[in-house]
Write the structure tokens for this entry.
Amino acid sequence: MTRLVQTAAPFLLLGLLLLVWEFTCRALAVPSYFLPPPSAVVMAMATDWAGLLKSAWNTLSMALIALLVASLLAQALGLTVGLSIILERAVRPLAVVLQVTPVVAIAPLVLIWAGLDHAGRAIISLAAVVAFFPIFSGAVTGLKASDPDLERLFDLYGANRLQRLIRLRLPSAVPYLLEGHKVAAGLAIIGAVVAEFVAGSGASQGLAWRILEAGNRLQTAKMFAALVVLGLLGAMLNSLLAMIEQAGLRWWRGR
Amino acid sequence: MIAALQDVEVSYRRGPALGPFSLTVAEGEIVALVGPSGCGKSTAMRLLAGLEAPTAGRVSRTPGRGETAVVFQSPTLAPWLSAQANAALPLELAGIARNEAVARADDALARVGLAGAETARPAQLSGGMAMRVALARALVTNPRLLLLDEPFAALDEITRRALADDVLGLWPQVRPAIVFVTHNVEEAVYMASRVVVMTKGPGRLAGEVDVDHPLPRPEGFRTTKAFRLRVEAVSELLAKGMAQ
């Protein structure tokens, strides 16, 4: 019984909030361009579900490509840097500065470099920049996270550098890489949406573009519809990556 | 002599950790190293293993590569490897062919009573079983010098006694020299041919107690008067070492 209530609790709260929202809008006659009632949002979703799905796929595919690019680059660079203390010392401050610079601030620059006609490239590049760091620091941290006693054991048996890398450092880094990818996937979506905003209307047909377009026309219900889809997309991607992380960890430690 | 520390001293940034301390380990003897926490027992073990160099003094070792094995306080197994692969690791690092390494690992696992657990991962093993895998990994190279750094400290009393008996039971097959660190005076007297007591840190020699009963010892040894007398002698030395 308690379990049932616990499972149902978030849905009950959500339903309650929607009801309050709906009735407040009606009772106070709030203009629809200011705050449309949930029913209007549902209507907007229903009438344009095909377009919304297409936009969602646009945003998602760009985020996924960015994640792939970021994953390859970050792991390659993380591996190089993680193996040399000097290189790590050299790269780390630069990486931190890049990481704390807001993606919105560098977006116009990337847009110019990618070419104004190639907004897709710019969006992917920006999303990749944001997704890069969690994977990169996961790789760098993970390569140094091996058990010090296991390191001593490798010393004791005279392991060479390659053996140490392949049999100890890389396997030890796996949980950190999994965690890094999970965080990066969420950031890739954020990066893609921010980049779409900066690229402006017409450049891409993603969810952010829909929000902008509908906003320009004061079609507030459509804005909410795109927002809901964006939220669902993020939640889905997040739980998918969490599942992949769990499965990966189970494989890694055998249970 | 298989390994010797001669007036060694070790200092870290936070201060002196060990010494001056001397210890000579003969071929095939079992030495227990007893002392208060922080007296530098683990440091002495790392010196004996050749994993660390002393700040002053001399370390002499005769074992070659792969002839020294260490078991730490925690099993220190690779979580991503099966029990078999963990036990085979020292051989694979030495470049021994996989088939032979696996066969010898299975044999070592069988010797510590883990036949049938070859494919299990460390996360699926109990603390005692994981410790046995670590022991199998140490035995797989047939080492001449076996260093056990409080290997049973994290286990319950029944498991630790069983493991201690197993180590003693395995000893006659290869007769490696064993140095083991323990906080448990009775365990030290029961297992060792010689108990070396250290003072509080930086550890020096507080004294030695010879346990001249033949190894391995019968379970009844724990109840003999000779056993009690030696436990008392070691306890007295420990108390003296704490007071210094």
About this structure: Chain B is about 35% helix and 25% strand. Chain B touches chain A at residues 46, 49-51, 65-66, 68-70, 72, 74, 76, 78-82, 89-90, 92-94, 120-124 (CB under 8 Å). Strands of chain B lie at 3-12, 15-25, 30-34, 56-61, 68-71, 145-149, 177-182, 194-198, 205-210.
